[in-house]
């Protein structure tokens, strides 16, 4: 596959994705509901969200889900290498009309490259282990995007169950740097407390400041606040428009600061995300 392939056949642009909604492929009601939701990308999960006894049915359901149209790009998360479900998941992913395939616990570029060749689709690699973080720069070169798996990363680092994001912030920054160096999109991990809307908004805002393009979600109620956090504010949009209009080439003054072309390019990205 082409390095940094950021678009699927359906035309979805990963850099425009703010919300990545995961749902169990074993739940037909959730799949039908997701079709009408406003998530930017839906992931039909065959891995953690599905019980072992339901894996085969979930696999069939994921493939069948593409018989009807989706309004957004859709991915399938397969089970990882070393599990008995990995090989049949690959076969199903290859047969499916999924736009992307999500690879869990990616720990080497070789593994991710092999999956991409087998399924013949763009791959999103989940960085969920210490080994994955250390190899993220190489992994980023052979996939369409990275997803930080924050829950598994905490577990792999043997952090306390109530650990905050602070102990993994350096790891998250490495994942973002890897994606940016490869020119691909990158997404933050999930927020587990479904009843803490304030906590979700805070973490999503922090994720954007770290450089993530969007965030993984586990409930539809998180879509709207996610889009708000990862979308530019009215003040940002106005400033970006003014900055672009004021630039005439070279270094020049804009208000009380000096700007040059890189500032204009950043402002243009703000306007693109805002649809302005």
Task: Explain briefly what this protein structure is.
The chain has 276 residues and is of the alpha/beta class. Helices cover 43% and strands 15% of the residues.
Q: Any idea how many domains?
A: 2
Radius of gyration: 19 Å
Structural class from helices and strands?
A: alpha/beta
| Largest beta-sheet details | 8 strands, parallel, barrel
Report the helical percentage: 40-55%
Number of strands: 10
Give the percentage of residues in beta strands: 15-25%
Shape: globular
What would CATH call the architecture of the largest domain? Alpha-Beta Barrel
Number of helical regions: 12
Secondary-structure element order, as H and E?
EHEHEHEHEHHEHHEHEHHEEH
CATH superfamily of the largest domain: Phosphoenolpyruvate-binding domains
Poorly predicted runs of 5 or more residues:
1-11
Major sheet: order of its strands? 1-2-3-4-5-6-7-8
CATH hierarchy class name of the largest domain: Alpha Beta
CATH topology of the largest domain: TIM Barrel
Gap from first CA to last CA: 32 Å
Descriptive report:
This protein has 276 residues and is an alpha/beta fold. It has two domains: 14-231, Phosphoenolpyruvate-binding domains (TIM Barrel), CATH 3.20.20.60; 235-274, no CATH class. It is built from twelve helices and ten strands. It has helices at 28-35, 55-64, 86-95, 109-119, 130-134, 136-140, 150-156, 169-182, 197-210, 223-230, 234-246, 261-274; strands at 19-24, 41-45, 74-77, 100-103, 123-127, 145-148, 185-188, 214-217, 252-254, 257-259. It has an eight-stranded parallel β-barrel with strand order 1-2-3-4-5-6-7-8, surrounded by five helices. Helix 4 (109-119) links the parallel strand 4 and strand 5. Helix 2 (55-64) runs parallel beside helix 3 (86-95) and helix 9 packs parallel to helix 10 (223-230). The longest helix has 14 residues, at 169-182. The radius of gyration is 19 Å and the shape is globular. The chain starts with 18 loop residues before the first strand and ends with a helix. The model is unreliable at 1-11 (pLDDT under 50).
